[in-house]
């Protein structure tokens, strides 16, 4: 027998009854029992029954949507699937069983594929009998094939292709054993938890980790490998960050920028599968909003604000400092530009963007340092977008080079969109240089400090919880500053009126006489 996620090579030698698990394959200290050949155990279903059950299931599917519309049909389809799941009276009937399976398969395709990573999927699991806590994210309905045997605590994250299995086939016998996942556990992509396992809490399973049957993982531990073995991650950054009173001066100190670069590299190398970190901006919230959904809603609203009065449809867009790429992907899906290019100075960040979003049409990423050169032709971009890219504002020389480059690549009627921290009068070294150099004119300028502070207040608990769960203690101070948590110097500067958060829409001044490179 060969177990899940096991690699058999030419060097693997086997004997009768061997059981292999792991990468590379290793023989287990037990053997498969020999069974005598038995006849008549596999029965085929008549072809007419298969056709009949398929016909009935499709009639029910089409009838539901035909009579109730898309919304009503989706609700009715879910009710039928749930009812059939709970209805075991005709379970011995082959035809009824086939109809039930086909309807549930259609439900997974037509409904569940659209509610993955949302709380609607969690509600559906609870309706099926799963015991799931609050603030849990599951990517797909196939992640929990045995709904009613799973107990999941609060703040648990399952990434793509993570799987919790409560069943096993042993000597052709189906065995079902419950699985318990404690609070604040993270199952990264491809990780598998077998039946009977207990994750005591705050456990982290690295990608393609296999937790064997009936294993118990102690709380506050990390696991990796096939089969899972205890793992201790080594921190890459240490020391505390210095903080300045004046935000613009703080942005101009090279020590902080070096540390920001190191942090940038760390989040791309270590936190590649954490859903909470897809966006890293400070967000925007209307003053009457209160719900922290923790899935990027307020980060997307910041993009909406910056892009509010600029049309991206059928335009060529460049985002400077695209970060982990979630904002770029959202803009492409929402505004449908002709092309959208995200650039970043970090190779690891760009690799992560390509890994996550390479399949999205019209979206691409590349490594480029906006302080030196933008690798695009003259007047090839209609819009250049810059969201909180403080790392390019460390020196006047870099600012001048950046302005020259965006002036070169923008079309004559192109737009440069910027948002970030500035002084209390809305001035900023970049804004001042753009306007005094006569390269751009300001079309719109808005102070959104209150909205950004409100968004930071709403998300303070989830961001603080993220830092506690994933960040090494030596880096907490800087990460709290970077996240804009209440009590940090940057947050207090905004709250007490020593700094403000502005968004600005610049239009290229077509009368300017800047030579094209």
From TrEMBL:
Superkingdom of this protein's organism: Eukaryota
Xref: CDD domains: AdoMet_MTases (cd02440)
Span of domain Methyltransferase type: 318-417
InterPro entries: Methyltransf_11 (IPR013216), SAM-dependent_MTases_sf (IPR029063), Trimer_LpxA-like_sf (IPR011004)
GO molecular function terms attached to this record: S-adenosylmethionine-dependent methyltransferase activity
Record-linked Pfam families: Methyltransf_11 (PF08241)
Stated name of the protein: Methyltransferase type 11 domain-containing protein
Species the sequence originates in: Adineta steineri
């Amino acid at each position: 027998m060969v177990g899940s996620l096991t690699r058999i090579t030419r060097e693997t030698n086997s004997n009768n009854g061997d059981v292999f698990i792991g990468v590379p394959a290793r023989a287990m200290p037990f053997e498969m029992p020999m069974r005598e050949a038995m006849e008549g155990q596999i029965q085929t279903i008549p072809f007419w029954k298969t056709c009949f059950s398929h016909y009935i299931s499709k009639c029910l599917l089409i009838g539901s949507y035909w009579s109730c519309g898309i919304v009503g049909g989706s609700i009715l389809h879910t009710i039928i699937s749930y009812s059939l799941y709970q209805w075991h009276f005709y379970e011995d009937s082959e035809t009824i069983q086939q109809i039930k399976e086909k309807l549930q398969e259609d439900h997974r395709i037509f409904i569940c594929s659209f509610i993955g990573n949302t709380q609607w999927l969690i509600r559906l699991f609870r309706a099926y009998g799963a015991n799931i806590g609050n603030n849990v994210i599951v990517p797909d309905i196939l992640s929990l094939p045995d709904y009613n045997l799973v107990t999941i605590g609060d703040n648990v994250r399952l990434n793509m292709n993570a799987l919790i299995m409560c069943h096993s086939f042993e000597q052709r016998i189906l065995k079902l054993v419950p699985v318990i996942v404690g609070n604040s556990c993270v199952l990264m992509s491809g990780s598998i938890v077998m039946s009977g396992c207990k994750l005591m809490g705050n456990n982290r399973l690295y990608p393609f980790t296999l937790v064997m049957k009936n294993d118990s993982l102690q709380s506050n531990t990390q696991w990796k490998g096939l089969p899972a073995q205890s793992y201790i991650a080594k921190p890459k950054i240490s020391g505390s960050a210095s903080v300045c009173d004046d935000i613009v001066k703080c942005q101009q100190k090279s020590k902080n920028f070096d540390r920001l670069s190191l942090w940038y590299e760390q989040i791309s190398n270590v936190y590649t599968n954490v859903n909470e970190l897809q966006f890293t901006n400070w967000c925007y919230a209307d003053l009457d909003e209160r719900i922290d959904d923790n899935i990027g809603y307020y980060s997307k609203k910041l993009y909406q604000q910056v892009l509010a009065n600029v049309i991206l449809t059928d335009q060529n867009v460049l985002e400077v400092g695209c970060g982990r790429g979630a904002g770029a992907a959202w803009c492409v899906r929402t505004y449908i530009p002709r092309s959208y290019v995200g650039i970043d100075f970090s190779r690891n960040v760009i690799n992560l963007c390509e890994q996550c979003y390479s399949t999205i049409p019209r979206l691409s990423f590349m490594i480029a340092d906006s302080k030196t050169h933008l690798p695009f032709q003259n007047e090839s971009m209609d819009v250049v977008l810059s969201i909180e890219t403080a790392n390019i504002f460390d020196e006047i020389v870099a600012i001048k080079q950046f302005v020259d480059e965006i002036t070169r690549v923008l079309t004559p009627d192109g737009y440069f969109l910027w948002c970030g921290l500035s002084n209390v009068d809305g001035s900023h070294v970049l804004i001042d240089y753009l306007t005094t150099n006569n390269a751009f004119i300001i079309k719109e300028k808005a102070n959104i400090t209150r909205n950004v502070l409100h968004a930071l207040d709403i998300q303070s608990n989830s961001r603080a919880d993220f830092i506690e769960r994933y960040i090494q203690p030596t880096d907490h101070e800087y990460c709290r500053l970077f996240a804009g948590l209440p009590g940090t110097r940057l947050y207090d500067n905004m709250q007490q009126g020593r700094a403000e958060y502005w968004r600005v829409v610049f239009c290229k001044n077509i009368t300017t006489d800047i030579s094209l490179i």
